[in-house]
């Protein structure tokens, strides 16, 4: 069958438009697979996890916040935010916005910013590196990272944030917070050239979402007293399904960041699973030792902290370091959540629904610092932004790297506290950030007119008549007051 006219190959640099000379089909396939895996972490991964880990009356609202954020980010990203993150420099920490749309833009070869290499007292900036795949692959891959950052942030304010306020918050925070971290660390900004290591988003995604989530939770206010006192998951098994998608999707999250299917990519995927598994086990052991019972929710939290902790160094550290990072990611966030979180008044005052601060901000900061300690020189040479760098345990300039990691984290923390606060205050002048008390009492039905489960005995009507259940009989029963409302 003949191809449609719009699919006929066009001559292009000695080849065709479909397969230009520079295209590496394997690299492009892995990049698109990685992007899809990261997208599946959000939709349906976190949509399922959020809809299941909350109280039944908030299942729809929580899942919908994740779904809405994903869709909104896709539009904002391709319209202006991608180029603010990876485009031409506007400021040392910010790119110049513009659309990542149109055939001319998307069909060209992807390009990555130049790096600064250090040779004794001289600095030499290398030329841009061009991955062997189209710009469209790069735009989509980075889009799903931006989307999951907003969805992680949402975990801090589930069960009370006004959905209309969330609709305003998503594009504003993406524009004024996420793009700054992405450009500064990945897109050629000042932290990128300074050599701060963030292999796959320990700072750009997890530290920023954890700090911004806690800040947003402060401005939105707490859940209702009843919800804070008792907030059981409505479906633990479905929660595990969402968590499983999150874990398996992390192969694309960390494996896609070398921008090629190389040795570094394989190391990143293996290290990711080693650290996550170790962290899950350590968290579970701590629960058994101190609380006498293994908690499946605790195991999921340990899994997440392991995945987050390894992210800034997944392709930069060796396997033994991934194990050490897993032990620490299963214990340090556990301590901040289970001990400090229950004693410090600030954590009692600020209602962080899913403890995003502990699972993402603490674990992300921990991972960033440990990357500065354990980054192996030969692996660093395979990763664009940290050429000629090394971790502290390898001597030389490694000690300086730890200081760089701390300084980079402080910038991300400070920027997110300030900018997130400004965004919340501005929105509050337009629309309340928090639902009304009446809506908080009812939940999904008040916020969306929908409920997660249609179960008998849960707001449904039961007809006591036997036999003929025609519409006329049912209507007569209701009119007669015989129908029982359960």
Q: How many domains, in number, for the residues?
A: 2
The termini sit apart by 62 Å
SSE series? EEHHEEHEEHHHHHHHHHHHHHHHEHE
CATH class of the largest domain: Mainly Alpha
Assign the CATH architecture of the largest domain.
Orthogonal Bundle
Strand content: under 5%
Instruction: Give the biggest beta sheet.
Output: 2 strands, antiparallel
Query: Helix- and strand-based class?
Result: mainly alpha
Strands of the widest sheet, in order across it, are: 1-2
Helicity level, as a percent range? Answer: 55-70%
Rough outline: globular
Q: Residue ranges: pLDDT <50 for 5 or more in a row?
A: 1-14, 116-127, 462-486
Number of strands: 8
Q: What's the number of helices?
A: 19
CATH superfamily of the largest domain: Ammonium transporter AmtB like domains
Alpha carbon gyration radius: 25 Å
Average pLDDT, to the nearest integer?
86
* CATH topology description of the largest domain: Ammonium transporter fold
Quick description:
Pfam families: Ammonium_transp. The strands form four sheets. Strands 1-2 form a two-stranded antiparallel ribbon.
Task: Tell me about this structure.
- The chain has helices spanning 25-53, 59-86, 103-106, 135-154, 163-185, 190-194, 202-220, 225-229, 236-255, 263-291, 296-310, 319-343, 345-349, 356-374, 377-380, 398-430, 437-442, 444-448, 471-480, and strands at residues 11-12, 15-16, 89-91, 94-95, 116-119, 122-125, 461-462, 484-485.
- The strands form four sheets. Strands 1-2 form a two-stranded antiparallel ribbon.
- It has two domains: 22-441, Ammonium transporter fold (Orthogonal Bundle), CATH 1.10.3430; 459-486, no CATH class.
- 50% of the residues are buried.
- The model is unreliable at 1-14, 116-127 and 462-486 (pLDDT under 50).
- The chain starts with 10 loop residues before the first strand and ends with a strand.
- By secondary structure, the chain is mostly helical.
- The radius of gyration is 25 Å and the shape is globular.
- Helix 5 (163-185) runs antiparallel to helix 16 (398-430), helix 10 (263-291) runs parallel beside helix 12 (319-343) and helix 11 (296-310) packs across helix 12 (319-343).
- The protein is built from 19 helices and eight strands.
């Amino acid at each position: 069958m003949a191809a449609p006219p719009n699919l006929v190959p066009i001559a292009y640099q000695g080849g065709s438009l479909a397969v230009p000379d520079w295209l590496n089909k394997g690299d492009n396939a892995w990049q698109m697979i990685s992007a899809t895996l990261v997208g599946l972490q959000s939709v349906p991964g976190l949509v399922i996890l959020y809809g299941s880990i909350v109280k039944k009356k908030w299942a729809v609202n929580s899942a919908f916040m994740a779904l809405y954020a994903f869709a909104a980010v896709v539009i904002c990203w391709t319209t202006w935010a991608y180029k603010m993150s990876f485009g031409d420099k506007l400021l040392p920490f910010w790119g110049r916005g513009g659309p990542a749309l149109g055939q001319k833009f998307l069909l060209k070869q992807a390009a990555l910013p130049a790096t600064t290499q250090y040779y004794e007292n001289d600095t030499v900036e290398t030329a841009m590196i061009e991955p062997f795949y189209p710009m469209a692959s790069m735009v989509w891959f980075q889009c799903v990272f931006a989307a999951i950052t907003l969805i992680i942030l949402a975990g801090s304010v589930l069960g009370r944030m006004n959905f209309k306020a969330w609709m305003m918050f998503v594009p504003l925070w993406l524009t004024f917070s996420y793009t700054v971290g992405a450009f500064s660390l990945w897109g050629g900004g000042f932290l990128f050239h300074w050599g701060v290591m963030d292999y796959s988003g320990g700072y750009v995604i997890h530290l920023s979402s954890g700090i911004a989530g806690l800040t947003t939770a402060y401005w939105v206010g707490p859940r209702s007293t009843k919800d804070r006192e008792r907030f059981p998951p409505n479906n633990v098994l479905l929660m595990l399904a969402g968590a499983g998608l999150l874990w398996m999707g992390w192969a694309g999250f960390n494996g896609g960041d070398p921008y090629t299917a190389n040795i570094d990519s394989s190391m990143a995927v293996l290290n990711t699973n080693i650290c996550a598994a170790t962290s899950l086990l350590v968290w579970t052991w701590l629960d058994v030792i101190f609380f006498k019972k293994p908690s499946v929710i605790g195991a999921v939290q340990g899994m997440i902290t392991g995945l987050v902790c390894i992210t800034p160094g997944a392709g930069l550290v060796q396997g033994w370091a991934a194990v050490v990072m897993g032990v620490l990611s299963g214990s340090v966030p556990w301590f901040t959540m289970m001990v400090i979180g229950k004693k410090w008044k600030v954590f009692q005052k600020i209602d962080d629904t899913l403890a995003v601060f502990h699972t993402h901000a603490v674990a992300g900061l921990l991972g960033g610092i440990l990357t500065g300690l354990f980054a192996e020189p030969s692996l660093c040479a395979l990763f664009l932004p940290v050429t000629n760098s090394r971790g502290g345990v390898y001597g030389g300039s490694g000690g300086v790297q730890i200081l760089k990691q701390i300084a980079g984290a402080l910038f991300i923390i400070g920027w997110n506290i300030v900018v997130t606060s400004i965004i919340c205050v501005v929105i509050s002048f337009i629309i309340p950030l928090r639902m009304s008390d009446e809506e908080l009492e009812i939940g999904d039905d008040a916020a969306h007119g929908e409920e997660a489960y249609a179960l008998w005995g849960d707001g449904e009507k039961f007809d006591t008549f036997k036999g003929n259940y025609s519409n006329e009989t049912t209507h007569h029963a209701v009119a007669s007051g015989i129908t029982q409302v359960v």
